[in-house]
Design goal:
This protein is of the alpha/beta class. It has 2 domains: 146 residues, ornithine cyclodeaminase, domain 1; 181 residues, 3-Layer(aba) Sandwich (Rossmann fold). Helix 3 packs across helix 5, helix 3 crosses helix 13 and helix 5 packs across helix 6. It is built from 13 helices and 16 strands. Strands 1, 2, 3, 4, 5, 6, 7 and 16 form an 8-stranded mixed β-sheet that branches. The radius of gyration is 21 Å and the shape is globular. The longest helix has 19 residues.
Length: 350
């Protein structure tokens, strides 16, 4: 149960049961929630999930357009008493139809765990933009040497930029960040936006081979095709790297995953479900354990500098819900957002 003091602090600001707090993306940002706070919440959520301290069924989905997805993602984190559901979508062609609209768009309904009543309806596109690289950072923190000098980013869209801006928080000695995107415009945009924010020199690669051969740690975030068309060859990967996939098995040929010394996923249950949907036509390799289990010290990590470690983090609602709790509580205190009435009839249907 929420402690009395916290519950009263909610009730002072919100007539729970009669109204709900609506928070736009700007409202979420205006709470001042920081990137390090979202990283800490993400790591705590991943570890809690793997320690079985949460309730989170694997995400079910709809796929109305080719290579699109809409995922229903409920979660409850017992220790934080945080619960709700994210409805998150990725439609890679959005920019063609709606200028300025991104492929990934998400909303959260954040609920009161003792009554099920909605407390907030909030944008979760920004939460997703930051907590997704945060899952990569957790993987890299526990899977790679923090002395790495080179990092590669495959895919230079929203996720590419956010990953590059955040990477030095776990790899502080980076000298070079290699980036690759199909088409130069996204690479140019990434360099323009990210170079002023990182110490390492960002180098655009003309082809993925240069990036893969030169980078000790690589994160990828390109559109997830229902049937993947991987383009990175095993021969380019070599020894000792840490690869983080935020896009399932979209980038590397199957032999790469099968040759991993250790292969981690964020949620075994969730990836088994995705396998059933057909996302892994060549199957999943043997799974060492979950990323959160590695963070919690429950499964082994890198044992030798030549080990190839691969992480496949498709994203988990527990991460979103812990972030939502922080944002909801701050927004309430700061009087951000708009309170919307819940239609309530005391007399039943008229
Ligand atoms: N794991 C998670 O939790 C999570 C969360 C959000 C998004 N994602 C995934 O991350 C991916 C990227 O999302 P985004 O919001 O950055 O999209 P985006 O459209 O902004 O960026 C994708 C970039 O990849 C590039 N690209 C497409 N095909 C490519 C190829 N074959 N080689 C190199 N580059 C290629 C595109 O030109 C684009 O610049 C999507 O697959 C999305 O589903 C994952």
């Amino acid at each position: 149960m929420l402690d009395e003091k916290t519950r009263n602090s909610y009730l002072e600001k919100l007539a729970i049961g009669n109204e709900v707090l609506y928070l736009s993306e700007q409202d979420c940002k205006d709470t001042g929630t920081t990137v390090p706070e979202i990283i800490a919440a993400t790591e705590a959520a991943m570890a809690a999930y793997s320690k079985k301290e949460t309730e989170m069924p694997a995400k079910i989905g709809l796929h109305p357009m080719p290579d699109s997805l809409m995922h229903a993602m409920p979660a409850y984190i017992k220790s934080a008493y945080a619960c709700g559901i994210k409805w998150g979508s990725n439609f890679p062609t959005n920019r063609q139809h709606y200028p300025g609209v991104t492929p990934t768009n998400c909303q959260i309904i954040y609920n009161d765990a003792s009554s099920g009543l909605p407390l907030a309806i909030m944008d979760a596109t920004w939460i997703t933009e930051i907590r997704t690289p945060a899952t990569a950072l957790v993987s890299i923190k526990y899977g790679a040497s923090n002395k790495a000098r080179t990092f590669g980013m495959i895919g230079c869209g929203i996720q590419g930029k956010a990953n590059v801006k955040m990477i030095e928080l776990v790899l502080p000695e980076l000298e070079t960040i290699y980036v690759y995107n199909r088409g130069p415009a996204a690479m140019d945009a990434l360099v323009a936006e990210c170079q002023p924010k990182v110490k390492a020199k960002i180098v655009k690669c003309a082809n993925p081979e240069d990036l893969v051969r030169n980078s000790e740690v690589i994160t990828s975030a390109i559109p997830i095709a229902h049937t993947p068309a991987p383009f990175v060859k095993q021969a380019w990967v070599g020894k000792g790297k840490t690869l983080v996939c935020l896009d399932c098995h979209s980038v590397y040929e199957d032999a790469v995953y099968k040759s991993a010394t250790r292969y981690y996923v964020d949620s075994i249950e969730q990836h088994e479900l995705l396998k059933g949907y057909g996302y892994y036509p060549w199957g999943l390799p043997a799974i060492t354990g979950e990323t959160g289990a590695l963070a919690a010290g429950l499964v082994p990590g890198r044992k030798d500098k030549d080990d190839l470690l691969i992480f496949n983090n498709v994203g988990m609602a527990v991460e979103d819900m812990l972030c939502a709790k922080i944002i909801f509580e701050r927004a309430l205190k700061m009087d951000l957002g708009v309170k919307l009435p819940l239609w309530k009839s005391t007399n039943g249907l008229q």
